[in-house]
Amino acid sequence: TSMEGFRPLFTELNAELSIAFGSRGAFVGTETMAALVESTKTFADLSRKDTKRMVRNAGLLSKMQVSPTAYFDISKRLRLNLDMSIGEQESTMAQLITIADAFGRPIEEVFRETAETMPVLLRYGKRFPRVFTGVKLAAIKANMDINDLMTLTERLDKSEDVLKDVAKFNALLGGKFLDPLRVLEADPGEKVKVISEALKAAEESLGAIHPRIVRDLAARFSIGADKLKNIANASFAEFDTELDTFGSPGAFKLSDQI
């Protein structure tokens, strides 16, 4: 497949992108259309109206340093895995921009992390936007890379692993500070909150946790001791409120963001 079939649409959109980007409009248009052509099989059945809408969104999002390839990759997964319409996708992406703005994170970072975590988090189905929001909020609060945080939360997703790890956690701390049922029932981001609360409760009861125990606990969760300390020191007091605020994609419109 070549770009020949998209030439009329390309010409039409170039004019719009030139208004937004000035002299860079033609370059952005070419980059955007090339990314679309790479995904032709996925979007072959879209109407001209929806195709134009997607390309326009990709071009304007690139103004925020979001690559067209990242945009089309996210759109493809939302469409194929969650059967989201273009409008639902736009709402989800507007949600991502709002999260980035609210917490002072680069928009490109949030979109990139969305694409990276989708293969794992899409198992939550239509709840994916809320689950991703929880993971991102937890990563920000704990000052952790989202992939490091996912290493921890994925380890605590299977009941047999959770029971073993929680038993060891409590044994090392000398008390029943972590509830295995709460860990199992929690979404990924919420698991981090539960662990943070357990570590705080242990410190309130026993005093500062010995560095050796911190290292042992961190090793049990497959993360570094410094990252476990970050989780212990993070404030999750506003986590539930923030998750409710930013975790519902229906509240956001892409047109309001770009």
Give the topology.
Blueprint: H1 7-21, H2 25-38, H3 40-43, H4 48-61, H5 68-82, H6 86-102, H7 107-121, H8 128-141, H9 146-155, H10 159-173, H11 180-185, H12 188-206, H13 211-220, H14 225-233, H15 239-246, H16 254-257
Helix pairs in contact: 1-2, 1-4, 5-7, 6-7, 7-8, 8-12, 8-15, 9-12, 10-13, 13-14
Account of the 3D structure:
With 258 residues, the protein is mainly α. It is 73% helix and 0% strand. The protein contains 16 helices and no strands. Helix 5 runs parallel beside helix 7. It is elongated, with a radius of gyration of 22 Å. The mean pLDDT is 83.
What is the gist of this entry?
This protein is mainly alpha-helical. Helix content is 73%, strand content 0%.
Instruction: State which percent range the strand residues make up.
Output: under 5%
Structural class: mainly alpha
Radius of gyration: 22 Å
The dominant shape is elongated
Give the averaged pLDDT, no decimals: 83
Helix content: over 70%
Q: Termini distance?
A: 30 Å
Q: Extract low-pLDDT stretches.
A: none
The main sheet comes to: none
String of helices and strands? HHHHHHHHHHHHHHHH
Total number of β-strand segments?
0
Total helical elements:
16
